[in-house]
Amino acid sequence: MSRTDEADILNDPNATIDELMAFLNGSASDAYDAWTGDWTVLAEPRWQTAIITAYTIVIVFGFFANLLIVVVIARFKQLHTVTNIFIAYLAIADVALCVFNLPIQLHYQLHNQWVFGRILCHVVMPTFGVPFFSSSLAILMIAVDRYMLIVFPFKPRMSNKYAILIVALIVLFTIALSTPLIVSIQYVEIAHPIIKSVKTSCAETYWPSYTHKRVYSVSIFLLQFIMPICLTSFFYTRICTVLHRRPVKKKDTRRNLRTNRILIAVVLTFTMCWLPWSVFALTSEFHNKIIPVRYFNLVDLLLKLFAMGSACINPFLYGWLNDNFKKELGKLFGYNVCCCGGKRPGWRGGVSYSRTTDINNGTVLLRSEGCPRDKASRDQLQPIDYAQVTGDYTQVKGEYTQVRDNGFDQLATFTQVIGQDYDQPSQYESLKQKTGIAAL
């Protein structure tokens, strides 16, 4: 007679010795599995292989793709803009997730054992959410900058130094919000009295109560995910409304629409990738049995893997859908990328320009009939052309430090149009004398 129900066996006075011994052996085996983590589905080799392979692909691709974005922005001054500063920070946050967060989380959940020491437990674990939550705030600041640029074009634009300061404040703000986790997370060593094994864990054990922990989790979810995404959506809705009211024939309007589509795609990617895991993590605080315990870590890892898909998609949105990035990426690898998408290593062909001046934005708009300019192309302009462009530039208000491409149209500052040779007022005066132009 075989009985497996715990109550039946322990309460049945007629239970045989064999049945009692089988039950006790099974209980000991269950206790050992619970201690070592062998009871989870992740203990199965097939699941471990699949999860490790998928994570390796995402980590390697996400690391190198985002690192490339950071390198391209850092190396080329024409990409040193407010928007690109925030994009570079988003890429750095994704690099941090790929290098530190994902590998450590993966190992901890696969082996149910913290092997990284006491210091990393107190330093790394509480800051797991910093790159993720600060990314949502950086995306919000991109929307704010675009909103001010398009809806209020005559107001001064945010400077690069101010953008860097905002990034620093975002990081400090997110770390400050992680302080309760730093206090609550503890490194614990537990010795099992029966199987004579020591288990180390790094977990939140010092919360005053579950209520405090739940209030904190809800607050973080609202403050660092829902609110930034809602505000970002509001700003882009207003931006699109303003742009669609403007005449479609304006090239600036078409250019802004294209740029905004890319940035909106970044927002949607971030939201769709991270929302499932965020909701799962928050729901688990209130209903920890929403997923069978055997599958909990598997579901958690799969949702984190899906969330990190944004780290692989964003570089594509930054780079391949942005002409500036494609052009500078081509320079990084030693070839020029034409506006039409062609690659011409070492190209030094001619190019001609027509020009107009945008007084409101403080820009000189040059139309090039050829690939983007290089030094040899600029040398083909006669002194009179330099003087005319310089004259136009002296009329514009402020400096417009961002280069933006749209087909064969390019917006640039005086230095980017002319080069360093005529950057000083004295050189400009000398240029006027050489060309015989008294006033421009």
Automatic annotation (TrEMBL):
Q: What is its main location?
A: membrane
InterPro entries documented for this protein = GPCR_Rhodpsn (IPR000276), GPCR_Rhodpsn_7TM (IPR017452), NPY_rcpt (IPR000611)
Q: Which UniProt keywords apply?
A: G-protein coupled receptor, Membrane, Receptor, Transducer, Transmembrane, Transmembrane helix
Domain G-protein coupled receptors family 1 profile: start-end pairs: 65-318
Recorded hits in Gene3D superfamilies, A to Z, give: Rhodopsin 7-helix transmembrane proteins
How the protein sits in the membrane?
Multi-pass membrane protein
Q: Where are the transmembrane segments?
A: 52-74, 86-108, 128-150, 162-183, 215-241, 262-281, 301-321
Q: Where does the record say this protein resides?
A: Membrane
Q: Does the keyword Membrane apply?
A: yes
* Family label: Belongs to the G-protein coupled receptor 1 family.
Q: What is this protein called?
A: Neuropeptide y receptor type 1
